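Module 6 notes. Inverse folding takes a fixed backbone as the condition and produces residue identities as the prediction. Think of it as a translation problem where the source language is geometry and the target language is the twenty amino acids. Below is one complete input and output pair. Work through it position by position during the lab.
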């Protein structure tokens, strides 16, 4: 691997100068010594722990520098190392966005850098969606969205792709959705198995509860025999603290990450069969 590729894949820190990249000599020497001691080639996939943090650190640097090609290279490198699509989203991109958001909140980066990073991630999701497709009959419909007051939809887009790749038909309602619209969506869609309301801000919790209530009103969970079959309601996002908290909002279950949502939906189907 060339020095240029190490830079573009986030493994070697560098500064953009005009049309090239400048690497500090001391940094390069330390990097070379580290490579000799750790062995050659890309490491095999490991989930969680230091491996996840390494990938996050690498892509955060590329995103902050506005390096879209380098960011894509890092994801491709992770895939070559044996990581799957869930790892790309759950263990790299989502934590990277959280990290960048925290840096903006603390004043370490400007808001334009945070916005630019988000736009790059959006385009990376599009690339991944074209690369990872699943064909055949769907397993049922899942409705996902964020309630009124929530303005970010990137994580919802990632979850949407993961669910589609798992065989679900997903109706992505985006962010900042009035509560009644969740109910309307469920009422007008076919074969709805579950609804996931994503909430990241405590100020949106009341709207999340209203959204779940709107879904309950159009499903058999309200006791109306003419209503649609009972739909499982899930809540996720950093504003949710526990299963008890989720149930206080009217949901059936708290899903702390996309992997748990996928497992929960699988469980709904297995119990129904």
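Target side of the pair, the amino acids:
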């Amino acid at each position: 691997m060339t020095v240029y590729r190490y830079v573009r894949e986030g493994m070697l820190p560098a500064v953009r100068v005009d049309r090239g990249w400048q690497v500090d000599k001391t940094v390069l020497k330390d990097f070379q010594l580290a490579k000799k001691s750790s062995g050659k080639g890309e490491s095999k996939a490991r989930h969680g722990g230091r491996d996840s943090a390494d990938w996050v650190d690498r892509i955060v640097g590329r995103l902050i520098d506005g390096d879209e090609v380098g960011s894509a290279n890092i994801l491709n490198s992770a895939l070559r190392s044996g990581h799957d699509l869930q790892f790309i989203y759950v263990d790299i991109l989502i934590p990277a966005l959280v990290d960048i958001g925290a840096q903006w909140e603390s004043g370490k980066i400007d808001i334009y850098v945070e916005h630019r990073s988000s736009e790059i991630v959006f385009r990376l999701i599009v690339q991944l969606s074209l690369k990872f497709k699943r064909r055949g009959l769907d397993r049922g419909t899942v409705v996902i969205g964020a309630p009124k007051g929530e303005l970010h939809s990137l994580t919802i887009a990632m979850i949407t792709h993961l669910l589609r790749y798992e065989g679900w038909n997903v109706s992505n309602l985006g962010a900042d959705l009035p509560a009644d619209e969740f109910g309307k969506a469920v009422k007008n869609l076919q074969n709805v198995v579950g609804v996931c309301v994503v909430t990241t801000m405590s100020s949106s919790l009341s709207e999340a509860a209203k959204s779940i209530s709107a879904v309950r009103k159009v499903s058999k969970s309200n006791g109306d025999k003419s209503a649609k079959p009972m739909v499982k309601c899930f809540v996720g996002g950093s504003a949710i603290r526990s299963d008890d908290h989720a149930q206080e909002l009217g949901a059936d279950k708290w899903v702390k990450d996309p992997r748990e949502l996928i497992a929960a939906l699988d469980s709904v189907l297995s119990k129904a069969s």
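Reference fact for the lab report: The mean pLDDT is 88.
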